[in-house]
Design brief:
alpha/beta; 4-stranded mixed sheet; VOC_core; Glyas_Fos-R_dOase_dom; VOC family protein; Glyas_Bleomycin-R_OHBP_Dase
Length: 130
């Protein structure tokens, strides 16, 4: 078994596409900015985040037609230089809610939200430093 992706069901596909592609700098697989589906990948690693139009999935599972409430996901991305990355994405429109700050003695984190309110945690792993 292999984890292919984490998929987020979104109402405003275009805003989320811009956030993951242009603001966070992840690479879209096909360039389908209008949806209803797109997978984004970082420059390294094989894991990915995909966006799926909620209305399309509601045609498959009726219960998905309801709006999501509360925090239902936390997307975690590892970065090498947290302070520099946060400065970079802030210039591109991201709003950092917390951090960069220590979370444990092994990592520093920053938190923000995508346009749908999904939480995104940026991690800098301190153990990787020599």
């Amino acid at each position: 078994m292999e984890l292919a992706q984490v998929r987020l069901l979104v109402n405003d596909f275009a805003a989320c596409y811009r956030f993951y592609g242009e603001v966070l700098g992840l690479k879209p697989q096909s360039g389908a900015a209008g949806g209803p589906y797109e997978k984004f990948s970082p420059a390294v690693g094989s894991a990915g985040i995909a966006l799926q139009d909620r209305a399309m999935m509601a045609g498959v599972l009726d219960e998905l037609g309801d709006s999501a409430s509360g925090h239902r996901s936390l997307v975690v991305l590892r970065v090498d230089a947290l302070n520099a990355y946060c400065e970079e994405i802030t210039l591109r429109g991201a709003q950092i809610l917390h951090g960069p700050a220590p979370m444990t003695d092994r990592m520093r984190v920053a938190h923000l939200k995508d346009p749908e309110g999904n939480l995104v945690e940026l991690q800098e792993w301190l153990l990787l430093r020599g």
